[in-house]
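Late entry, evening session. Most of the bench is empty. Finally got around to the prediction I had been postponing all week. Sequence below, unchanged from the version circulated by S.P.
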Amino acid sequence: MNNPITNLLHVDELIKQALREDISNEDVTTNAVMPEYKKGTVDLLCKQDGVIAGLWVFERTFLLLDPKTEVVLHCKDGDEVKKGDLLATVTGDIRVLLSGERTALNYLQRMSGIATYTRQVADLLKGTKTKLLDTRKTTPNMRIFEKYAVRAGGGYNHRYNLSDGILLKDNHIGAAGSVKRAVEMAKAYAPFVRKIEIEVENLAMVKEAVEAGADIIMLDNMSVDEMKEAIRIIDHRAETECSGNVTKENVARLTAIGVDYISSGALTHSAPILDVSLKHLRAVEE
């Protein structure tokens, strides 16, 4: 298994929680029709075109139920897949194949949907210097998987969590009293190696953020004309990011502005799943 996440114990615990959610006591249906061990195999099929992501989580789900399960992958994360493609075959105790099916597919469908949507948006930024970023608008207890899926789809990760970086948003500015004061307080508190990003909503705030020495200035919910003027004011004295209801339907309007980053919560909170399924379960003679 090619596992891209270094903290496997953390990932395993999250998958185990998902399995416990689905099997609180026993899989009563499976135990009714398959009371004893029998070896079997089942096919993982793609039901629509897209980008696959989360195959290692899919595999890990079955291995946590039974380490003897064998998963043969016919593609890798980040690959473009087509309707009808055979993505993998899973072989092992039929009871494990049946009981782990939904949890494994839930991870794979969700992650592949995010990778597919991310690829669609990232493709619209090709030929520009702008990088596509995700946000913290993720499903609780799914962030590690969803942010990985963004990378598999060709996007980049913004900070992972609140401990990972300084981003002064409107309410932080309100708490501090002003843009200048918020930046000053962040500089005083944080190690000098930490970049300080601040969210601004108008040109007056842009000027104040530049003068305060912010490292990254996020242009939030500003018009295209306002953002172009903001870029002129900033004049390479800080990195720039734009955000605010960015989707694949409207991202094209931002490509000519010249920002360094575009962040989109839609990558993780609005991506539809990619439909995949386990089919053709059959017994295998040993």
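Two things to note before I forget:
Residues 111 and 146 are 6 Å apart (CA to CA).
The chain has a mean pLDDT of 95.
Will write this up properly tomorrow.
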